[in-house]
Amino acid sequence: MNALVPLLVIIPLVGAAITLILGRYRRVQIAISVTALVAVTATAAVLLADVDRTGVPAVVEVGAWPPPFGIVLVVDRLAAIMVVVSALMLLGVLVFAVGQGIADRDRDTPVSIFHPTYLILAGGLFDAFIAGDLFNMYVGFEMLLAASYVLLTLGGTGSRIRAGVTYVVVSLVSSLLFLGAIALIYGATGTVTMALLSDRIRELPLDVQVILCAALLIGFAVKAAVFPLSFWLPDSYPTAPAPVTAVFAGLLTKVGVYAIIRTDKLLFFDVPLTVPLLIIGGLTMLVGILGALAQADVKRLLSFTLVSHIGYMIFGVAIGTELATGATIYYIVHHITVQTALFLVVGLIERVGRSTSITRLGGLLKKAPYVAILFFIGALNLGGIPPFSGFLGKIGLFEAGAASPSPLVYVLIGAGVITSLLTLYALMRVWNMAFWRPKEDVEGYESPLIESLQESPESTDGTAIGVATAVGTSKLMVGATTGLIALTLCLTVFAGPLFDLAQRAAGNVATPETYVDSVFPGGVPDSLSGGDAR
Amino acid sequence: MSASLTLVVLMAVLYGAGVYVMLERSLTRILIGFLLVGNATNLLIFLMSGRSGEAPIIDGTTQPADIVDPVPQVLMLTAIVINFGVTAFILALIYRSWWLSNLGDEGDDVTSDEEEMDAAEADEALVFHTNLEGDDDAVRAVLGEGADDDPDPEPSEQDRDVMR
Asked: Primary place of residence (chain B) (predicted)?
């Protein structure tokens, strides 16, 4: 089974190479990238089943160099869950993007580079999830970031370049912070292999641990868009093409959260992070959702809810118990799915209604009843209405919080409930304005609900930035969106088994010994052979 | 762990200068800042290898205790390659944003060869036309006649055909 592990990275990269060579044959490109992602999904599913059955992480020594000298790839339950969910999302969004290309008849999409870049993004993402050492994780991050720079500035229009610059510069700074942190950690411990670090960091004085941990966490917090390092996200994501925004929103921030979980649980479990993370998590929730309330543009609104819901995950990580980690993992899975699905629905809205601003949309319920249903399900789910998975995920987090009570935790639970209600309010306002309101009422409509809304910044020719000019949807686009919405419903229906799986994954995460023993079956080496030079 | 003080000072200067330049508004300066900070980080990684020593090549004569720690050099090399790629991308981004701010979206409108040929021919015809009129005027002036005698002040149909 271990032989399957490197395939998670190799398949997308080989696919990227082939699609790049065959850039002129669009159908072949589509066939190859779909095949590659289906193959990765299948591989990841097999790995998840296997790792879950045995309970032991699958470990591969790349090039047969034993750790800590060589690179190790480690797939434990958490990594396997993340890979399976991301592969499914990437596949769904790819189908949507193909459908959109067909609807556009290729008028303004330089498709020849879309598929290779998309597959490299996938490869980098999976590499970051299964990396067994910090530096390989950095390389994975850089792969997916470089691909995301290209995807965000696809087509090179003025608004995308402007948004791209913010995104690129912020990402570069966070990458340099991450790299600097790796250097410091290497200096303090003499290794970058996570399993060995887990053992050695404990021996450092606590103040050194705190500094190293903070350096690493700041780098990850920028990527995960945690307040106050989240300012860049709502400005850059909404300008990209709809499928690209969907992938970014669903997956890229979650890689940051994943890295935070690893840092907190595997590397720096001695550092008391609960109180600072709780405060940051609460602020992320509230500031994010208050930003969402001021937005008229649905894409920007969803970007702000994305920031705010990262707060729930930080809340879960902060509590730190096994129960809370399990709930966090379930919440991450739920949020990846529902956020991606909702952004795809907005992609449909912008093509049916020719705008994404709720001050201009109207009468969509009559015009596109099917899109309305998709949006309604997604919105209720994100808002946390029972019985959907959003509700179950939040209940899980609140229960875990109540199980390890402190005044601050109760404040956070309160903040979480308020955020949930405000999310529902923001999304239902979209529903009322865009779907429920008759088209005739749009002109001269006045309501205190939309009085002080902020429109998205406009480009020079007066059209809102990032709104596609093309209209019309294809069956593939609607089909892909339906598939993802159906997946969110599956998360609800199969919540029991999934929650159990998440708890088992949390059990793995909560005991770093499992991870360490699987990488070093013969025990952790005391010092590197050849003598410790320092 | 012993490290060269020169390198530490150099790293600090690079970090300081890099962060300062990065805070400017211009994209080119941000790129320069990124390069400085990136190199400072590379130096930081390099410093983490501790004392200097012999090249880490195992040829039977070197003692393991004498060689320098090779891992930071490997990490640094990878980081340099990544920085290089990202720099290339930012340069493209800078060029693109310069293009857009100077030429706007019209800069992207590519005229086909045929259109360009047509435009060139039209220009030539215009020059020919003006020259023709100028010649006519000159002839009239020489003959000392008024415009009345000229039956066709405009170039004839035949002339037009020539022009095309």
From this structure: membrane
